[in-house]
Specification:
- The relative contact order is 0.32.
- The chain is built from no helices and eleven strands.
- The chain has 124 residues and is an all-beta fold.
- Strand 5 and strand 6 form a beta hairpin.
- Strands 2, 4, 5, 6, 9, 10 and 11 form a seven-stranded mixed beta sheet that branches. A four-stranded antiparallel beta sheet has the order 1-3-8-7, with no helix packed on it.
Length: 124
């Protein structure tokens, strides 16, 4: 049984930082593309960043230079370091496994495995 669990969300002021973590079990983590998506209130879920099993990374334009995705295959853990947070980053952040990660990353339907989400709230 595949389990994907996010942690690290919270409340932070604009300009602050948070680090999200995602632990995946029940799959061979090192062979899976991994991704972060987010859903803001009353908006569709969107791709934030992904990292391929090879270690290639892709980012939504609005987070480039502020967010860094990484993975630790030995710990089967995915990370998202979020710096210079903005109110528009407020959303539920979801970890996803097993989908497309390339130049056109962003299709949630490509990802079969999902976590429950962790809330990130950025105050102005």
């Amino acid at each position: 049984q595949v389990q994907v669990v996010e942690s690290g969300g919270g409340l932070v002021q604009a300009g602050g930082s948070l680090r999200l973590s995602c632990t995946a079990s029940g799959l061979n983590f090192g062979t899976y593309n991994m991704a972060w998506f987010r859903r803001a209130p009353e908006k569709e879920r969107e791709g934030v960043s992904c990292i391929s099993w090879r270690g290639n990374t892709y980012y939504k334009d609005s987070v480039k230079g502020r967010f860094t995705i990484s993975r630790d295959n030995a710990k089967a853990t995915l990370y998202l370091q979020m710096n210079v947070l903005k109110p528009e980053d407020t959303a539920i952040y979801y970890c996803a496994a097993g989908g497309y990660c390339g130049d056109f990353f962003g299709r949630e339907e490509d990802y079969p495995y999902w976590g429950q989400g962790t809330q990130v709230t950025v105050s102005s």
